Amino acid sequence: MEEEFKMNRSLWDEWTDINARSKMYGMEAFKQGENKLDALIRSEVGDVAGKTLLHMQCHFGMDTLSWARLGARVTGVDFSPRAIELATSLSRELEIPARFLCSNIYDLPELLDEQFDIVFASYGVINWLPDFPRWMEIAARFVKPGGCFYLAEGHPIMWIFDEEAESWTLKYPYFQKEFMVCEEQGSYADRTAELQTTSCYQWQHTLGEIVTEVCRNDLRLEFLHEFGRGFFPIMPTMREEDDGFWHLPDGDDRLPLVFSIKAWKK
Ligand SMILES: C[S@@+](CC[C@H](N)C(=O)[O-])C[C@H]1O[C@@H](n2cnc3c(N)ncnc32)[C@H](O)[C@@H]1O
Q: Of the residues 60, 79, 120, which should be mutated to test ligand 1's pocket, given the most ligand atoms within 8 Å of the CB?
């Protein structure tokens, strides 16, 4: 798997700088105090004041630091050295206390030996995981007894459609087991940006697999919610609305595009 991780890491190093200057990520507004966590996540995770929070695959840390602004004691982990460098410098510049660790998420148990009130991940993390069961074991291991695991993510249905098509057109199988080699043009936040690394590896995980693995790790499911709006445009006709999500025209919400899960450790 080393080859696949190496290519993905190079792409994320490049995407970090592209994303950091993109309109989509809005770093200037964040520096001025804007909280980057959407209302859905904030309400479902609940009050974090004084709690310890582990953010898995934190990118360059704006969401992690947003949790810290709400009072959480945060640790963010990502395997992109560039992302962790930028996250650390944002924490220093804005004087928001945070700890950022550069590690492949699969190696984290070798680096970190503590447990957290909240283990959190969101939007665009599980498609980078070759082994979801192992990832879930690791996430669960870091939850304190009485603490929770929370994931808000693109619904696995979202990945099976043709992104170029004007309406729902099937392209990939829902039950895709092999990795997919994806060709990239720019980043999802700026398709015009120049890239050296132009392909990456991604994996599909079904909702059945996800829920089964949460429960297999002794976490008690509080909810699994599904929403008919996306966290980024998967079709050219989608538009961003005031809720921060991407919607299809004419209120078309026939298919789930985002899901969220919250589960508790006894
Ligand atoms: C889309 S970002 C998710 C964060 C957040 N939703 C955001 O947009 O800021 C996905 C992150 O996963 C990280 N990542 C991918 N594979 C990883 C791995 N095996 N170990 C640790 N981090 C990984 C990437 O470097 C990237 O920062």
A: 79
The CATH number that applies at residue 229 is: 3.40.50.150
Report the domain count for the chain.
Answer: 1
Structural domain boundaries, residue 115: 2-265
64 pocket-lining for ligand 1 (C-beta < 6 Å):
no
Mean pLDDT over 87-94 rounds to 98
Q: Does the pLDDT of residue 16 top 90, yes or no?
A: yes
Q: Residue 159 pLDDT more than 90?
A: no
Q: Is 138 helix (H, G, I), strand (E, B) or coil?
A: helix
Question: 154 phi and psi, to 5 degrees?
Answer: -65, 135
Report if pTM > 0.70. Answer: yes
CA of residue 250 to ligand 1 center, whole Å: 32
Phi, psi of 127 (to 5 degrees): -70, -10
| Residue in 128, 131, 136 to alter for ligand 1 test, most ligand atoms within 8 A of Cβ | 128
